[in-house]
Design a protein that fits this description.
The structure is a single chain. With 152 residues, the chain is mainly α. The protein has seven helices and no strands. It folds into two domains: 90 residues, Orthogonal Bundle (Hypothetical Protein Yqey, Chain: A, domain1), CATH 1.10.1510.10; 51 residues, Arc Repressor Mutant, subunit A (Orthogonal Bundle). Helix 2 packs across helix 4, helix 3 runs antiparallel to helix 4 and helix 5 crosses helix 6. It is globular. 16% of the residues are buried.
């Protein structure tokens, strides 16, 4: 079952169970996917978003909520930070399992070997290989410095 169907099914279940917070988050996910569909149509694409694109959208949503929760905590708005964390929990249900630090390290080594990267100039190739295989499974913001250390 593709991600869109899973999200739609979860939305229907949340409606029937009258889970207002979960329903709200699932509607936000659907809206973000539809926004991307519309943007693709404007660019001449007609197929809509695929699962890889949905994973990117979900990853971006999680990152935004982490940043918001941090800002709310710094501002003393703990209740709003908790709401953001609850939304993160709902969104992460649709993301693949995150790689452990050891698995991430192994994936980086494999990508460097696969792309024959030897210097910092090859970092883009390594990141591209990792994104092709592990979208939604690792934090590329944290992976960048790790790759840089290995290549320099």
């Amino acid at each position: 079952m593709d991600l869109r169907s899973r999200i739609s099914d979860a939305l229907k279940i949340a409606m029937k169970a009258k889970e207002a917070d979960r329903l709200s988050t699932l509607r936000l996910i659907n809206a973000a996917i539809k926004d991307r569909d519309i943007a693709l149509r404007g660019e001449g694409g007609d197929a809509g978003v695929d699962d890889a694109e949905v994973l990117k959208i979900l990853g971006k949503m999680v990152k935004q909520r982490h940043e918001s929760a941090r800002a709310y905590e710094e501002g003393g708005r703990v209740e709003l930070a908790e709401k953001e964390r609850a939304e993160i929990g709902v969104i992460e249900e649709f993301l693949p399992r995150q790689l452990s630090p050891a698995e991430t390290e192994k994936a980086i080594k494999a990508a460097i070997a696969e792309t024959d990267a030897s210097s910092i100039r090859d970092m883009g190739k390594v990141m591209g290989a990792l994104k092709a295989k592990y979208t939604g499974q690792m934090d590329f913001g944290a992976v960048g410095p790790m790759i840089k250390d290995r290549l320099s």
